[in-house]
Batch of 4 targets.
Target 1
Amino acid sequence: MEFDLIIRNGVIVDGSGKPAFTGDVAVSGGKIAAVGKVEGSAKQEIDADGKLVTPGFVDIHTHFDGQATWENRMSPSSNHGVTTVLMGNCGVGFAPCRPHQRDMLVKLMEGVEDIPEVVMVDGLPWNWETFPDYLDALEKRELDVDVATQVPHSAVRIFVMGERAARHEPPTAEDLEQMRTLVKEAIEAGAFGVTTSRNMMHRTRAGELAPSLYSEFDELCALMDGLVEANAGVFQMIPAPSNDAGEEFALLRGLAEHGKRPVSFTLLDVPNQPGPGWRAMLRGLEQARQDGLQMRGQVAPRPVGMFYGLDLSLHAFSSHPSYKAIAALPLAERVAKMRDPQFRAQLLSESPEDSNPVTLALIDAFRATSEWEDGRPNYEPDRASRMEARAQAAGLSLQEYAYDRLLQDDGRRMFYLPAANYTEGNLSAVREMLGHPDTVMALADGGAHYGLICDSSFPTYFLQRWARDAAEHERIELPKAIAELTSKTAATVGLTDRGLLAPGMKADINVIDFDRLQLRVPEIVYDLPAGGKRMLQKVDGIVATIVNGRITYRNGEHTGELPGRLVRRSAMQLAA
């Protein structure tokens, strides 16, 4: 028998959590045809001797809602073995949307997800209005990964309430009925869930709070009712990290009890939350499971970190008046200007000015950043390496020291801040959350935070840090680690046809040189619409990635294949 593709002699880690074994994987018609000892030939073969063969990774927390409409490659996620992405998280997105409301959604996405307005204005085709229209537009796209969607609360609220949504007015009974209907319509058209946010950091660039914030329980229940009436979908939420964890979990549990639909939420080790809050939420998850509720926390495998630099979105002086006056200049001209002693003295005499308190807080946090000086990523910096500690050791003020460091490498030096999941200066809390039966590894945020965060490398980091390089007492067994990236994430959101290497499943596959797996330092590229910039992070050791039976990447290089398509929830229900 001739197959389309055979992967020979690999160490097969099939995504089920069962022990690895050596064998072959055969592919025909975009499906896995056989696993084990495969006789016959194929149009293409990959020799995977000594390499891992795993299912493609399923990333359930991304923001490719816009990028999927203007670009064919969902990089940087697709560079890290991801073969399916779920978009529309955090309650933000671009559908449903009436023509006169587009600017509201663009400004919201600019502030919440750090995507420049000009990129969206230039890139978004806006060939939709309703959510089913949006899915129809996506269905025409040819991509390097499969994309699945969720309907975002803020977009629904604006679609129904217009300016009243932005003013955070309470919805009427008629408004709630329309929201419920829109969610039901989206799920029936193929969305995988509804999403919302209660995080006070989610604001427009000007500082206006996202429309989903302050929504009362009855409004959240209306969204859940849309899932109930469609008899499908997951409710995803970003809790308010500044609130009491017990109160936030009670709200999440109340939604799960109200609708009896699965609830998924962001779970982080957040500074200054009493408890610690994450541990209280783990206890809540355990009780919910015992009570028959479907609830799962989404956990990041490392600090949720932010990057600063003159060529990125923020740095120590990005909101100082003198810097704002030169911010639009090319980097080389800015650096030349900042090396002028008179300009330096003027800027150092100023204070940051911005209408958005989150921006001011992030600028102040620059004091806790560290430099990656050896050309290798360091996601676990020692506190002695912080900017403020180094400034003190150098006998300079923080502002003087930061000014000089920003000009290193002709202004291209980047600085890393472990913002969440690093409260104690280590990853012990992360390991405890990752090992819990009611959590799943997620939160990579691909397609967002182009100039601030580069966490789409989470899958690579997770395998490298926790399944290979961790001390024996904290190491996650490789079969369990692969299941965390594949079958567990797929099951969390109802993707029933992928995440396992088994006959009849989708032929989404990775071939990995596990010993050689290594992240590189992020780099800045200018390849977005309107010349917009973003950070990309490459990896060594992923030998091949296969989507729908076609090889999309070899050793990190795109092959030109674009087999990825829109995945509709309705198709999953039929498959199940």
Note: The mean pLDDT is 94.
Target 2
Amino acid sequence: MLSPTRDPAFGQRLGATLLLLALLAPAFALTGFNPFVLLRQDTWHVWLGFVAGFLPPAHDADFLAEVLRQTVTTLASATLGLALAAAIGLPAALATSRALDAARLTAEPPSRWAETAKRSLRGLLVALRGVPEIVWALLFVRAVGLGSLPAVLAIGVAYGGMLGKVYAEILESQPAEPARALAASGAGRLARFAWAALPQALPELVSYSVYRWECAIRASAVMGFVGAGGIGQLIDTSLKMLNGGEVSTLLLVFLGLVALTEAISRLCRLALDSRAGTAGIAVAAVAAVLGSWLWLRSAWPNDAFDLAALGRFAVEFFPPAHDADLLANAAHGILETLAMSLLGSVLAFVGGALLAVPAAGRFGVMLKGLSRLLLNLLRGVPDLMWAALAVLAVGLGPAAGVLALTLHTAGVLGRLFAETLENAAPEPERALRAAGAGRFSAFAYGQLPQVLAQWIAYTLYRWENNIRIATVLGIVGAGGIGTQLYLALSLFQQQTAATLIIAMLLLSWAIETLSRVLRRRMES
């Protein structure tokens, strides 16, 4: 039997916990979020009454027909938007990838002009992906009007920046020998791409594109909150009319849509193992893009692609406003956004960890299935939809944003945490149990130390994402700098909006840099 001894690291862990709580105190003050209110009996009565309003789901024929039409619009917007993103991202990757540089493959000296051009293009890609896609949708709604076109353009622009970066990284991760041989024989950059890099990278490029299509469907589904069509617009309308039955039906349809796209994604990844499967994916992709174009084009105005109008709209954002009151309000919005993201991420870490233990099968098959179902529900509903529901449940303001981020991120982290528990070596825990340690002590000292660093890394990564998400939750009234941006665009104050968008970009860049530094220190 083990003799009871004092944990030598107890003081260090307690100090770290108290320091974290001290850092969180200003975040609680800024957001007004009180987690203990959620445990009160009267709060649960309100929540149960709120949930009861969603039952039974609406199922009349006219409503279901409209739901079907908007679901197809959501799928078409995501598909056509991703095609536009690939048209932006693939040429950008071809131009910027170091895997195709003659200076890297041969002794040829680098061209100063070419290097400057590539750095400028990389900076443009950073700006495209740095603005959240729903903010792009909001901008395009103001520029070209309501409907599905802003969703297509927003996905194309935002995801074009993402695809350009990731495609270039995929090309750079391939063996350099084939491209080096072609470069030595005098082949140009395009030939090195077509005959050396592309054949090696094609499966990974297709796999990532399919993953991005899943993400595009989720993004397209919530763009209706800013008037960009699709199933999100129906959810926004039903929420504003407090029609819980319709909201319930729409959420069920959306969860089914997410499950369908994940199944299609798995089939595509399996098909990549053969040439016939890869050819089938290509044919299906072309057919999907053409079908999406035909479905959406009839609803677009004839002058939808008026580049002159888009140019005039863009000019209205310059110069960005810089008066003292605006900068002070923007700073407060940034702090509120940071507080929302930090609190939401920390609370999601706790919730995800608690759900991950049964989801990893430590308490039987039944609890494993129930906890995984709950995790799928939490992460399946987009954060913006959670925010809209949280606003109805707890009122306007950043507290609703904290709750929305907590619920969605707990689902994401819980699934990741459960997988790390399943993959951890069981021997240390078994040895402690054999030596007489209790079940909790064996888990805490045998298995948890193996996964804790990975859990923290996952949480830091999700914090980066939550920063971007928190900047737009204000669109549905959940606080942060997104509320100021939505108000500025609603009042046609484009120069004010430009300042706020710049603040979003700077915040995203600063958090990404900080998170990267923290991860490197953890790895060293």
Note: The mean pLDDT is 81.
Target 3
Amino acid sequence: MKLQQGVLRYVWSFIWIVFVLCVAAIVGYFAYADKLASLQHPIRVTQRSQIDTASVLINRKISETETVMRLFKHEMELLQPEKNTITRAFRALFSVYPELLQVRWLDDNGNEKIRLEKAPDDTLHSVEESALQNKAARYYFSAGIQLAPNEIFITPIDLNIENGEVQRPFQPTIRAVTKAEQAELGSGLLVINFDLRPLLSSLKSLNTPESALLVGAGTSKWILHPIESKEWSVDLIKAPANIVVETPSLWHQLSTQDSITTQTVNNTVVTAQRINSSFRETGGLPDIYLLTKSRDDVLPALQINAFQTALLYALGLCVFGLLVLFLYVKHIQRLQRLSKVIKVERDSLKTALDQQTVLIKELAESQKLSSLSIMVAGLAHELNTPVGATNMALSNLRNLLDSLNRQANEGLTKEQFHHFISQTDKTLSLANDNNHRAISLVKGFKRLSFERAKDDFTRFKVRQTIMDLERSMAGLFKQHHVTVKNAINDDLEIEGYPGAFSQIIQILLSNTLAHAFNDGNANQVIIEATSFPDKVEITVTDNGCGIPESIQEQIFDPFITSKRHKQHTGLGLHMAKAWMYQAFNGDIKIKRTSHRGTQFALTFPLSTIPSDH
């Protein structure tokens, strides 16, 4: 029998260890995932901001390119300047729009008739007639000739080329082309080259130590890249460097969708977006691809940090599991020794021995519950009373058992045995009642902490949530001699975040305990609710000393308090008002205050779901 018990104990211990290891691995995995997501969140926010800002800058530049061309063409058509004054009109355009490189007039054969360009020192030069070129072979001339009278052609982004050579220093350029008609020049094309260096400089300034911005002009090349040698690969006739080569998986996704939320690619955190171009079908400006990538060393560092946190959780759980196993084995050994002593001492009273064995097992279970209660005693001061009563009952049981042991050695009478049974039953009933009370308190604590940790938008019962909060603060209420009356109906429900709701009520109650009452035994707080067709109003009313008139108007502002000398920060009511707005689209205000008390009113709209929390 002993051998079988020993084998079972070892088998059970082995199963328990395997279970603890499995649970530790699962908890470690989820802790790792949660911690990594939390650490990545600032990067996600930064990358989304980089993408949004870059998209605004690029779209604004494209819109500006088209708008400038239309306005200038319209002005030229209205003024119809003579040939010798057209250059002056071109110069006026440069003065209004400084981010221009060239303005040219091409005839129907591609010959430059007029070209005004900006030198590296920002001075304007009108190119001599002998230096004018024929642009008939350039793609933008072919595309421009086919335009309808009022159409605008926006070219792809490239490096400016003159006389077959890429100009240095580089001049990133985008061109606007349209057909035009001048009395002096006849029909032809108006071509404006826009300088993209300021735009690229603004885009580059969006880079952070953790995340870099990449901009692809279509699928052929990068025009902005953390590694400058990968920029302008097509224009400089270098090895291909583009989104298709570098991140083919992202390119395939962007071919079917305009935006990609943050994901991990090649051990980096990446966010991407495609800016659709309305000119790509005619060989003009292609779609623009925006990518933000974390630096190569950022994600590994975050993964190490998350792994360390997960390992800490897993080791803690393993230690806890082994401690439970150790206490269980010690507990079983103690029961076995006690059982052996009882059997030896009570051979003459087999029936009494069986009853006492059952009693000992029940006592062991009570001791186990008491041990678990002691482990959670720190959660709330209110647990002291039921746990203390349970301990007292168990102590009484020990005294009864010791007394029974002595009486058994000296000669146990039937009256003594019945007295032992009667007292044991009463003591166990008392212990059982207090144990149920402790369980109820722990459930309230667990439900309250779970609601605050989960923080999901749901429909919840107002009275139950406040009751859980009351239990958690019962010790403070007793300390300040305050009674709380929860006058809210059981069936009242509101939609929102129960964790945020309990936090708001707790702030009001804590504020009341700290500021409203002086010494006395008639201190009272009443919590009531009134339903309206479009809202629910919950009031928290105390019979304290009221709020000083000097701070009433600023009471919800941060750092406003009348007890800064007692280390109060003055942030509680400010946070309560902020949470009311963020979590419920509601409001909190002082409904009345005087020397006879203060009433706070919380308004919860019934038909508005908060958009941000």
Note: The chain is about 50% helix and 20% strand.
Target 4
Amino acid sequence: MVLAVIPARGGSKGIPRKNVRLMNGKPLIYYAIHNAKNCPSIDDVVVSSDDEEILKIASSYGVETMTRDSELAKDAVTLDPVIYDAVCTMEKKKGIQYDVVITLQVTSPLLSSDTLDKALESFLASSDDTYISVVNKPHLSWTKKDGCYVPNYEKRLNRQQLPPNYLETGAFLITRRECMEVNSRIGKKVSVYEMPEREAVDIDAASDWVLCEHELKKKRIILRADGYKELGMGHIYHCLTLAYNLTGQELLFVTKEQHEPGLKKLQEANMPVHTIKSDEEFLEFVQEWKPDVVVNDCLNTKADYIKELKKYVKRVVTIEDLGEGADYADAVINALYEDHTRGDNYYWGSNYVCLRDEFFCATPSVFHEQVQNIVVIFGGTDPSNFTKRIYEMAKRIHKDYPEIKFHFALGVGYDQKANQIETDEAAGIYVEQNLKHISDLFGKADLAFTSQGRTVYELATMGVPAVVMAQNEREMKHTFAQMNNGFLNLGLGINVADETIETTFRWLVETPQIRKEMQSLMMRHDLKSGIKRVIGLILEDEEI
């Protein structure tokens, strides 16, 4: 027989009414009771307290309660006699003797019932007398000896190379009944049970309370996106931006294993990734992982897919979704397209742009009468290979504009070698692939060539006038990249002749007043607040 004792004194001074104060909508004592009741190996649960309010709340959760003697509620009294008293009282009441006793502390609300159950199973299968909950915190430390500060180590090593340093968490202590005395709960053969660091917070100060409440409120979020040549890498980069702004949540990327460029980028970003082969496999995984939110950044969805997803997850958010499934999502966020005929769950336009972090502190481009630097950037894969066309144009016109430098920013999925795109300083051509900080390049640019994706927002933020060519019919629906916002849009790129591109280039280079007006139109937009709105929609938090 196993008894769990939850000691809960009423006289908390650091945090008044600590044990019954609401944490994430529930009394603090609820979490210890919940863990004990959800541990299959625990037979009985008792709360020992000197406080009537604590006892009434504990009783409402369906556990035994006992009024602690006032002598056992004094500040100087340790837990040993309190637990011993509770065990003896319960044994007398039940007419039995317990085999194992667990002390569960109210001040460890992050402890999970799963961890507690595994610890108890491990203990019951062992020959140990006592298990103490610990967290492993290896650090270089010092102590004071004979008036001098001396190290607690022989050799300075990196933290990962240091020997274990187990700190008691106070979350639980498991011991055999025969090892218990009035002033001791620890037997001769002691072992430790290492618990997850996230669960090891012991509430002792207000800052601990804030941390625990945040942890209990955090959400499990799946970000689903793919990246490959035909689709491009925009969805991967967008979800990475979301991830960097969802700090404090439990995140997991899901991508199809056959789309290697996207998978590789996520792995390079050190993000947790789970791979799937199909929508059916994804739905099965959602049932297993049990997320609170799924962000689906995979373009058009089908109604059956979203309806099925909604069976297993509370909130579904889709990105750039023009499919029939979007009507069934909780929120549809589309910074690129606008269609105000759709329902109230649609959030359109530039108010929902998610700029990457680097653009929040980057300095916009300074206007120059004479064009000095041109950026050429057509996304992660450039499926229509506009890069090659601009590269060949740059070579042709160099004799007419020897002072202009072309900077080609190639995406991670672009085949530079096959397309023979390389730096040629004699022709004023500089090529870089998979740049980590693109805003530096934009900051010195006077003009840009780009496709009609999210990059247009980044160029607008940096004030770089741009010539735009859409990669496909879908991109042509993007409404922002127009002249009224500072862009010269040539339409579907595959239908634009090389002569038109070159003529447009020459006109812009030779008419600085047009470029200056384009920059002015770009800079009137405040695009930096969009990420805050999108994060609020994902978390369903109106205050964000």
Note: The chain has a mean pLDDT of 93.
